[in-house]
Design brief:
mainly alpha
Length: 118
């Protein structure tokens, strides 16, 4: 507070912006004249039919999206299910399955004996 008082005494209170005399007395009248009622007299017509059309379009888009999603989901699984495993890769055959099942049935003693033989 003391600093503000000292600054005010030393430099004064300059007002850099001046308002013309009577500016605010005519301000309201000028604003009203700029935005006359004639400009805003035209109102847009109420479109009552637009809201149901919007909802119908949203519902149609949702139905089409669900249809496309399920159609593509079924096509992908049908293609994979229709191809036989032997056609996909020669790596998938009964010999490998037999070897894996034999390996799964081995216990520790069998593994030690197989390692010792090699």
């Amino acid at each position: 507070m003391k600093e503000e008082y000292l600054l005010e005494q030393k430099f004064g209170k300059p007002r850099p912006f001046n308002v013309p005399d009577g500016y605010f007395e005519q301000f309201e009248a000028e604003i009203i004249n700029k935005f006359s009622a004639e400009k805003f007299a035209e109102e847009r017509p109420i479109r009552r039919w637009l809201r149901p059309v919007t909802w119908a379009a949203c519902a149609a888009i949702a139905v089409v999206s669900v249809f496309v999603y399920f159609r593509n989901a079924n096509v992908g699984t049908d293609v994979v299910a229709s191809v036989h495993a032997d056609e996909l890769s020669p790596a998938y055959n009964d010999n490998i399955v037999d070897e894996l099942s034999d390996f799964a049935m081995l216990d520790n003693d069998d593994l030690y004996s197989l390692m010792a033989d090699e």
